[in-house]
Automatic annotation (TrEMBL):
Protein name, per record: gibberellin 2beta-dioxygenase
Residue ranges of domain Fe2OG dioxygenase in the record: 181-280
Alphabetized GO MF terms: gibberellin 2-beta-dioxygenase activity; metal ion binding
InterPro entries per record: DIOX_N (IPR026992), IPNS-like_FE2OG_OXY (IPR044861), IPNS-like_sf (IPR027443), Iron_ascorbate_oxido_reductase (IPR050231), Oxoglu/Fe-dep_dioxygenase_dom (IPR005123)
Species per Swiss-Prot/TrEMBL record: Thlaspi arvense
Keyword Metal-binding: yes
Gene3D superfamilies recorded: B-lactam Antibiotic, Isopenicillin N Synthase, Chain
Keywords of the record: Dioxygenase, Iron, Metal-binding, Oxidoreductase
Catalytic EC class: oxidoreductase
Family: Belongs to the iron/ascorbate-dependent oxidoreductase family. GA2OX subfamily.
Superkingdom to which the source organism belongs: Eukaryota
Length: 325
């Protein structure tokens, strides 16, 4: 039977043979628990709701990351979704990489880092990108994935509105511009890695959307920058992780923070996660809701094009610093 594993060691043989041990910055990364927000309080009295919204805004300012519980997605749905995900990734590699056989859009299955010019730019992972506008075409996924997508879409809209209101803006911007046709899911798998000290599942980056909503398993591996240091996020299978993306940082004029994060790999265990990306159309213009603005006006399409050009040229994303006034 054909292996389901992408041919990392064959494809990146030159990198792997010439590597020296970086030991992931040669520091011990402390494990911390992200701020936890219980969303049941949004349905409580005015004072309770206000306190919950205040915590969401504070975490978005101070951490750029937080986690939510009582999010309305049952553990049964999450477990079923994870089982579907594992089944899709365990298909033979030749099937996964053949768009015609998988009935997927071109480019929807990705693994490794085609633009990598060194070991430190290589992501030891594989992923399926699933547009919300085309979920019905993914026969390998059950209704659990559709239910997850539907509920996190509503959650993203709600959180975006809360964050806007906390800046004094009651705007229809997000409902008008972040639609199912512009948002997508990414199913991630991080295979066991023979040299975990030298590689990352995902190299350090910020997300290019407004908000990302992530469900991860209990293996752990997500790390983020807090107060200038990398910290490891303690996994919580019952919670969803929310993080601010570049577009929200630009829209909020830097009030909400898009924080650098990465995924470390494990020598023996595989890790799964599912991420929802709250994105506008490429034509949507992003401009600060506060003056004077730190950032130039730009469309999401312009931002994505610049990111892609930088990755091709330098092997990594530069991001918002390209758009500072």
């Amino acid at each position: 039977m054909d292996s389901s594993e992408p041919p990392f060691q064959e494809t990146y043989k030159t990198f792997l043979e010439s590597c020296t041990s970086y030991e992931n910055d040669d520091v011990i990364v402390e494990e911390c628990e992200l701020p936890v927000v219980d969303l049941r309080r949004l349905s409580g009295g005015e004072e309770e709701r206000e306190e919950c919204e205040r915590e969401i805004a504070m975490a978005s300012r101070e951490w750029g990351f937080f986690q939510v519980v009582s999010h309305g997605i049952s553990s049964e749905v999450l477990e079923k979704m994870r089982a579907d995900q594992a089944r899709v990734f365990r298909r033979p590699f030749r099937e996964k990489s053949d768009d015609w056989k998988m009935k997927l859009a071109a480019g929807s299955y990705r693994w490794g880092t085609p633009s990598a010019t060194s070991l430190r730019q290589l992501s030891w992972s594989e992923a399926f990108h699933v547009p919300l506008s085309n979920m019905s075409g993914y026969s390998s996924l059950s209704s659990a994935m559709e239910e997850f997508a539907r509920k996190v879409s509503k959650l993203a809209q709600k959180l975006a509105e809360i964050l806007a209101e906390k800046m004094g803006h009651r705007s229809t911007f997000f409902r008008e511009n972040c639609l199912p046709s512009t948002c997508y899911l990414r199913m991630n798998r991080y295979p066991p890695c023979p040299i975990p000290a030298d590689l990352f599942g995902l190299i350090a980056h910020t997300d290019s959307d407004f908000l990302t909503i992530l469900h991860q398993d209990d293996i752990g591996g997500l790390q983020l920058v807090k107060d200038g240091k990398w910290i490891a996020v303690k996994p919580n299978k019952e919670a969803l992780i929310i993080n601010i993306g570049d577009l929200f940082q630009a829209w909020s004029n830097g009030v909400y923070r898009s924080v650098e994060h990465r995924v470390v790999v494990n020598k023996t265990a595989e890790r799964f996660s599912t991420a929802y990306f709250f994105c506008p159309s490429y034509e949507t213009v992003i401009e600060s809701c506060i003056e004077p603005s730190v950032y130039k006006r730009f469309s999401f399409g312009q931002f994505r094009q610049q990111v892609q050009e930088d990755v091709r040229k330098f092997g990594y994303k530069i991001g918002l610093s390209r758009f500072v006034v």
